[in-house]
Amino acid sequence: MAVSGGLGPRLDRERFQWSSLAMLSPAVALLGLLFIFPVLYACYLGFTNLALVGSRSRDYSFTGLDNLTRMLGDYVFVKSAWLTIIFVLGSAIIGQSVLGMALAILLRNAVVPIRAVVGSIVIVAWVLPEVTVALVWYAFSQAGGTLSILLRHTEADYLVLAPLLIVSLANLWRNVAFSMLVFSAGLRNLPTEVLEAAEVEGASVWRRYAQVILPLMRPTIVTNLLLVTILNLSEFTLIYVMTQGGPGTETMTLPLYVYQEAFNFHQLGYGTAISLVLVLIGALFSLLFVRASRSQV
Amino acid sequence: MSAVSAPLSDRKMVAVPYRRISAAAVATNIVLVMLGFLFVLPMIWMLFASLDSNPDWAIKLPSLTLSNFADVIGTAGALSSFRSSLILAGTTTVVTTVLAMLAAYPLSRMHIPLKRSFMLAILFASGLPVSMLLVPVYQLYVELGWLDSLYTTALFLAASSLPFAIWLMKNFIDAVPIELEQAAAIDGAGTFRILRQVVLPLTLPGIAVTAIYTFIQAWGAFLIPFVLVSNPDDQPGPIEIYNFMGSHGLFKFGDLAVFSLLFSLPVIVLYLFMSRYFSGAFNFSGAVRG
Amino acid sequence: MVSAVRFEGVYKLFGAETAVEDLNLTAEAGEFLVVVGPSGCGKTTTLRMLAGLERPSYGRILIGDRLVNNVSPRFRDVAMVFQSYALYPHMNVYDNLAFGMRAHGAAAALVDQRVKETAEVLGLGQLLKRRPSELSGGQRQRVALGRALIRQPQVFLMDEPLSNLDAGLRVQMRAELSRLHERFRVTTLYVTHDQVEAMTMGDRIAVMNAGRLQQVDVPETLYDNPANTFVAGFIGSPRMNFLPGRLTSVNDKPGVEFLGASVQLTDASRLRADGRGSDGEVSVGIRPEDLMWKPAAGPNCTLALSAIVDVVEPMGHEAYVTAVCAEETVTSRFPPRSGVRTREKVELALDPDRLHLFDAKTGDSIMQRPVVTTDEAVRSAREAWIQESEAHRPQRSSPAHGGSAQAGGSQI
What we know:
The complex is a heterotrimer of chains A (297), B (290) and C (412). Chain A has 297 residues and is mostly helical. Chain A has 14 helices and no strands. Helices cover 73% and strands 0% of the residues of chain A. The radius of gyration of chain A is 25 Å and the shape is flat. The N and C termini of chain A lie far apart (55 Å). Chain B has 290 residues and is mainly alpha-helical. Chain B is 76% helix and 0% strand. Chain B is globular and about 70 Å long. Chain C has 412 residues and is α+β, with helices and mostly antiparallel strands. Chain C has helices spanning 43-51, 93-103, 108-121, 137-149, 167-184, 195-201, 219-224, 229-234, 375-397, 402-411, and strands spanning 5-14, 17-27, 32-36, 58-63, 66-67, 78-81, 155-159, 187-192, 204-209, 212-217, 241-250, 253-258, 261-264, 270-271, 281-286, 291-293, 303-314, 319-325, 328-334, 345-350, 356-359, 367-368. In chain C, the strands form five sheets. Chain C has a six-stranded mixed β-sheet, with helices on both faces. In chain C, strands 13-12-11-15-21 form a five-stranded antiparallel β-sheet. In chain C, strands 16-20-17-18-19 form a five-stranded antiparallel β-sheet, with no helix packed on it. In chain C, a hairpin with a 2-residue loop joins β4 and β5. In chain C, α2 (93-103) packs across α3 and α2 (93-103) packs parallel to α4 (137-149). Chains in contact: A-B, A-C, B-C.
């Protein structure tokens, strides 16, 4: 009666449920058509001389590494890559993360009404449409605008004097809420016993943050850096609406350069090749963070 | 009696430093108020300029008027751009939310081969820059004859917001105790009834957060419609504002401010409506192994 | 209909872990079978396999005569009370109770009637409009119970249903569950880690450890004649004392040597025919209540030992005394106010009839003890009792007797 000896085949192998396929397929279909296919297509187009208009919009061909050699000799591209890195480093990695963490810690310790009001203001800045942010910062930094009045140089147009700085500040102003929310959630998830233990042991506030809270927050910090870098690398709208990459090419970060090459100068192939470099930079940054977070544990 | 009161008084002694308003607490709140003021400053311009009969770039107390509002609300361009934005963001939100919901449930609950790889691919996909997809999608839309339509443009917006939406929805479904579904199954409920009467009501906040997040993103979307929609009558709000800035922004500050204010209102209202649930969505702990 | 439940050679493997190994277990129709064991012993997995929430890796599971290995939970006609209760948080009590019947397509009027009956039986009548979050722990427990009761299933499954209640409420619900079972007589599998719940509620108890079934029997037999050291140590509080000993012969008759003393085995504690121990090495088990304070011991306690008191734990109605006797630590139950103190020398006494002997290596019992309550006696009693319950059963669901259910409810 009992089947204790030779047990035979397992009876509890996971069964594939066809309903799961049915539920997944619409999403997979949409992603396949408008995400995965374009990604693969981009990897091909980046090595062609496809143009937006003219004969090469139809009869384009594979040109191997031509686009890459062209890039290396392209003064604007090299500048653009540097601008992108400076923008991401300053506005996102340093600015957004540090201010976001500061806001999260300050809000945690503030009285309720101030916490509610300031928290909401910061988040509203983030949910506003990007064009609106671009507009209010455009107004803010114009000659005769609020910034020039505050700095007592009413004739100074700061969008011309320090375009990258202003654009970075506007971006910081808009996106800091994201880091703040991530860090607030991270702080909420800290084990309270550990914090209380540190408090009972008489550790000063600074010591508690430096030696207990920040090390515990490490995974959250790494996650934030990763996401913030990736999101800001592809920032287009804010900069484009404020400056169109100008004056000259002073704020021409890679996403803007991709757009300009592809749709203003009709070089679709070359533009795509630049966007591939942008992805590579993102992958490089991500790898760096993940490495750094592992090596020191 | 004395044995009881002794620890009590001890506790009181410990509690005293917390009750006192410390210098650090005052500093914290003052710094926050200052930061809050700096943050609100650029926004104030939009509000004041919209009510000012003679606005310029600086923030100044307005000489009150509603004529700016009257100017903008009457124009056909403003109305049609609102309509376009609504179609664009509405379609995107519906498509994204429904597909994300359908996909997230099996990813959360069912046995699917290669599920982990699929989730990693989704996480990776949500990090790819739109700039990369712009040219191939443009080419594809040329081939398919999909250019210049708000609905097909919404489809691409939906595809680009879908990875994050699936990821978000899966987290919300993961949070529903699986025992509830098991209890319902033992109670005799079929898959459809479990989904409709147990899973759906319990993930409603998650669905709302996903939908509103998607809507806010799509409402502000600029680059994708900028490239894919060229018909001037179909331009959504962000592009209308951009064009306005370029053409006559330098003369009509008031109208510009009113237009962006009106265009921002829906997302602000939506955010305030959902703010209670929003912060929970940004809990990325454990998303990346540190 | 009430059905028996049978596990035949059932295994459950999770990766490399064996959660349940070669389980052969039957719960008779109408029986209240308690599955008890420490956490991780496989008891909950066993229950979940019966519910259909896990599928067995090998073996067969039957409800009545039906093989249910591949039957999904919804078609098994079982009801389950979860440890967490798993009440639907977005539905009020009424809808929670009604959910199962509605899922089975019952008519609204019948659902309404049965919800009200069940609510009366469990004293939930005033709470039907409340959400689970507005209920106390005990009330939630009752709703969970009601959700199972209302279905009138073939089998009840309960997974540590009382573990989230505070101590007083737990005792009260224990009695109430027993009373409900008396009344409805549905086959019940009750999983718990609490041996007191097992002893007080089970018709029979199945003890599990490390995925293996150790012993299944009525509570008294389990207590008096444990099959091995695990069962002996798990059932009973304070824990049984285990002392190293050797089989010897005393006056040419079998005896055992431990704590420096030798005892001849009596008729009440005969060795099994094959009971040799491992080269004569045995583990001697003595329950604390059998190791008595000499001044309080009865005439049968012929074996006397002296010991030094280490710890005295007064419990009110008695005291647990831990003492050191021949370099072994033993626990003994003393009468209250015995006056003994730490480091005092005391005399302990022991009835040789009450010794338990286990193989020192395998831990299996090597004794053949005549059991007072035999299995047969219990079984025939139970059969009588099921027939009686079958006779009573129709009353419960027939509308004409709705009033009697309410009257019954007020007794609870």
